[in-house]
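Collaborator request, handled under Task 6.
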Amino acid sequence: MSRVAIIGPGRVGTAVALGLQHAGHTIVAVAGSSDPPLDSTRSGPNPHMRGSGPDRATISASLARFRRLLPDVPVTAATAAPADADLVVVATPDDALAQVAGQIALAEAVQPGQRWVHLAGAHGPEVLGPITAAGGRVAACHPAMTFPDPQTGFERLPGTSWAVTADPDDLDWARLLVVDLRGSPVTVAGSNRTLYHAGLAVGSNGTTAVVTMARDLLLGAGIDDPSAFLTPLVAASAEGGATSGVAALTGPIRRGDEATVAGHLQELRTSFPEAVQSYVALGRLILGHAARAGLADDRIAAVRTVLDRATHPR
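Structure tokens returned to the collaborator:
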């Protein structure tokens, strides 16, 4: 079993730390707070906290949560965290990965042959280039799962699919790491990771946004418990779309029922005018899929006219 350092004590990093500890690995260090700083050789503001990364308060809260869940793990600076580790898990925000890797390599904190893995979806292992140049072995392993909090994320790890990208010499240990986390490793080419990640972002956050809108509409319709309607419906719809694609599409747009769509829009203009634009945008997306599923051209034209009039009334 490995001795593991965690750099980035956020929800995903903490969940993975819990998973690795459950699998018998030893978590020997965690880094990511502003005290101690990311780069202990400099004074002044922490450069990792600039730009698009989380602020100090967020990092401190994340670290406090990590320590509650794994109280025996020593807290250290990122440049010191790898010292006693066989494996270093970098779970910082995606846009901070290159900077973190550069700072750690500059501090000569990478040991020859040491394994490093980051958890970002859109990047391959090349983002850890400074680590590779310093003698480390790198991989990118991304879980296709949401992590609303570390404990829930840890409980969702079993059965989760992971996108694994690494050079051939590093692919075996990266895949075994995912197996240790009770996940299913799927090799994804580095050149495909951005598109892969975009697909997951649409599938996850896009679904959440749409279901939240649906929930608001049901509440407006006097439904006290929207989840009783939406949870089974959305689960079945998501499963159908994921397994069968456009063949699973149903509803008034799929059928070309322009009068029903017009009725929806008329009601929304009265009850939820802020939802009209979103309904139209979704309607156009659904209509494109309905065309792929075989909806007749005249039905497509009729529904498109209704949607167009909602945003460009004559």
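The cover message to the collaborator said: "Residues 33-54 have pLDDT under 50 and may be disordered. DSSP finds twelve helices and seven strands in the chain. Please let us know whether this matches your experimental observations."
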